Amino acid sequence: MDVLLDNLDLFERGFLNTIQLFVLAAIGSLVLGMVLAMLRVSPVPFLRAAGTAYVTLFRNTPLTLIFFFFAFAFPLLEIVSISYFTAAVTALSLYTAAFICEVVRSGINTVPVGQAEAARALGLGFGQILTSVVLPQATRAVVPPMVSTLIALLKNTTVAAGFSVAEAGAIRDYLSERGEPALTGLLWVALFFVILVVPMTLLQRSLEKRWSVAR
Amino acid sequence: MSSVLFDLPGPRARARHRLLAVVGVVVIAAIIGFVIYRFAVTGQFASRMWEWLLYEKVQLDLVSSLLATLQAFALGAVLALVFGAVFAAGRLSDHAVLRVPSTAIVEFFRAVPLVVMIFIFHYGIGLGAPFNSVVLGLMLYNGAVLAEIFRSGVESLPRGQREAAYALGMRKTQVMLLVLLPQAVRAMLPTIVSQLVVLLKDTALGFLITYPELLYYARYLGGIAEFGRPLVPVTMVVAAMYIVMCLLLTWLAHYLERRNRRSKKAVPTAPTALGEDGDVAVTAVAGTGQLTSQQY
Q1: I need a labelling partner for A99 at 20 to 30 A (CA). Which of A15, A67, B43, B293 fits?
Q2: Sequence-separated (6 or more) residues with CB below 8 Å from residue B292
Q3: Given 3-state DSSP classes, what are the helix, strand and coil percentages for chain A, each rounded to the nearest 5?
Q4: Taking CB atoms and an 8 Å limit, are A186 and B276 in contact across chains?
Q5: In B, which residues are within 8 Å of A156 by CB distance?
Q6: Do A77 and B39 touch (CB under 8 A)?
Q7: Residue of B nearest to A111 (CA)
Q8: How many CA atoms lie within 13 A of A62 on its CB side?
Q9: Which of B119, B246, B273 sits opposite A172 (nearest CB)?
Q10: ipTM, interface predicted TM-score of the complex
């Protein structure tokens, strides 16, 4: 308990940074993921192929490697100089977007064919079918796995600890500077993560239970 | 499936699609072109930057660090499967004494980030060589996820299977081992393999605690001044290695899925809406429109 109370400032700063990383990366990956999902269901074969290539590439690369690239290799390309925090947000967004894209795309695939056919028979266009018929129905299938992806994102933010971002995973470094025992500090970090993750898991389960009955 | 979203294109739609395709090609070519241009400007394509590939010592070291990655993966995978099987059995047990603690343990290990867990083992408890901490972390985290996969696999089987087995006079263990598990494993095989892909990717976390695996070696190699600090080329080569390994495993998952679907005896993949965290991808099972979520 002392380790926590004596170093409350460290824990506060660490978890605030974690939550900041999480929120920014969540927004980034949701936007990019939606765009990618649109590409993957679009009528233009080239755009579909581009979306597929992106998803294959990023889903099969370890997140640590993407972090590695943006923290160490990207600055060598001298495009723009980015802080470690920006690098972490970029890496997390690019990685998570591939998973968000897959969740949205498979959600669209669960909507029965008849729905889209009926909408087409009514003369709606691609955009109209997607926004007023398919997507509202796909939401049911999309939201629970989306929450799971976001939980994973929250946990993945800790990888940034290895790349000079002062978030929750890095609390240990600062604690050991102050001569505190690493184990107690890390166990507190683990406990806070459980506290953050469990409500999201419960939300995801209840959504899944309530919505999986559809049709 | 996505083809139902739009009609067979008429002449105007075709023209529009062609325009979109051209715009898409231009935009993506511009992005890739810009990246290649930056690579060229900063001298990443200079032959000096790629010279390291020619040294036998470097090649051998690259292979041995790849082996270190695979070693952590293999041991972690086996242990995680065992851990998953044990705790899935615990969660399915009729006795609350076993069920409640196993549920708590599984939920706990799923909620704690793998990085924090590896840090606890390495810096907190101090297990000696980084290898131990990496493998233990991989085992506990992925084992907990696999336990959930096994459990939902068993629970998704039709109730008649269990009832028929009991009616034949089998005991609880026999029902589980001879009837339920073989079917559940078969139905969940693609999901299990996908989780193993996650495990393979997670071995890269060993980099954070200086386990000498592929990424760690890449960092070392990229900093050698004699080769001109070829960090960018090295990262590209290592990324390609990871992608190829993961794709091979993913391909295995697809192959198993296909084989599974072809067999008439296979259980229909049940509506297991796995409540997992972790990176989830959802695949619609052909024909049923049901969701089977997989962790990536």
Answers
A1: A15
A2: B191, B269, B272, B273, B274, B282, B283, B285
A3: 85, 0, 15
A4: no
A5: 113, 279
A6: yes
A7: B289
A8: 27
A9: B119
A10: 0.85
Among the partner-chain residues B20, B115, B278, the one whose CB lies closest to the CB of A152 is B278
H or E stretch including B32?
helix B11-41
The parent domain of residue A113 ranges over 2-214
**Helices A84-110 + A8-41 axis angle, to 10:** 40
A44·B24 Cβ contact <8 A = yes
CATH topology for B47-268 is: MetI-like fold (1.10.3720)
Nearest residue on chain A to B290, alpha-carbon basis:
A110
> Distance between CA B42 and CA B5 in Å, rounded?
45
Beta bridge partners of B283: B292
Residues B237-261: tens digit of each pLDDT: 999 999 999 999 888 878 877 887 7
Contacts A–B by Cβ distance under 8 A? 226
Q: At what angle do helices A135-156 and A182-211 cross, to 10 degrees?
A: 170
* Whether the predicted pLDDT of B146 surpasses 80: yes
Residue B292 · residue B282 · CB < 8 Å: yes
Contacts of B205 (CB under 8 A, 6+ apart): A62, A64, A159, B114, B115, B118, B134, B137
Asked if the C-beta of B166 comes within 8 angstroms of chain A's C-beta atoms, the answer is no
Point out the residue among A182, A183, A208 whose CB comes nearest to the CB of B273: A208
Asked if the Cβ–Cβ distance from B119 to A198 is below 8 Å, we say no
What is the block-wise mean pLDDT of chain A (215 residues), using blocks of 10 residues? 78 88 94 91 87 92 91 83 89 94 87 86 84 84 88 90 80 79 86 89 85 61
**Residue B282: pLDDT band by 50, 70, 90 thresholds?**
very low
Torsion of CA B22, B23, B27, B30, to 10 degrees: 50
- Does A110 contact B289 at a Cβ distance shorter than 8 Å? yes
Q: Which of A165, A197, A174 is nearest to A21 (CA)?
A: A165
CATH (domain of A158): 1.10.3720.10
Residue of chain B nearest A119, judged by CA positions = B5
> What is the phi/psi pair of residue B8, to 5°?
-60, 125
CB contact under 8 A, B20 and A47: yes
Q: How far apart are the CA of B5 and the nearest CA of chain A, in angstroms?
A: 6
Number of domains in chain A: 1
